[in-house]
Design brief:
Helix content is 84%, strand content 0%. By secondary structure, the chain is mainly alpha-helical. The chain folds into 2 domains: 88 residues, no CATH class; 55 residues.
Length: 176
Amino acid sequence: MRRTPVVERQQAGLETARQEPPPRSLGLKLIIGYKLAKLPVMLALAIWLTVAPRSAYHVAEQIADELSEASSLWARLGEWIELHLSTRLFRWGAMLAWLDALSTGLEAILLLIGKAWGEWLVVVGVSVLLVPEVLSLQRKPGWLKVCILLVNAAVVVYLAARRLRAARAKRGPHSD
């Protein structure tokens, strides 16, 4: 049987499709691990806030009471929680928890199966959070806020650079 150029290209395509994806870097493994650890927590929170909002409200009240009776630092936090507790807050919290759980699950799945746009989805999602983090840091600076901001910024830079390098490599060395 004579091979045509079309058949040869199809067979070559099958061979490249069967190639194993490159091993994941440590950075990507850490991001995937974080997403997989966060997913059940956010799902449980979303379910709890949706199914038993009164129970969640009661727990928040108990936490606020316990904090109010603690040292002066924790007492201020307890008072702040008591002041801001509302059923409306818990409804919004449930919606945000569902949104976070769904986006985290989608990101984890896409990263696990090696889809490039999964990395872009994480870049966009984390980038959106950088603005409120900077504003929060401006309003009331703290070391924990700085650390969270730096980690999130590093994730954005790492994944964006990774995707841009892959795009350049795909175009080839002489396409500039």
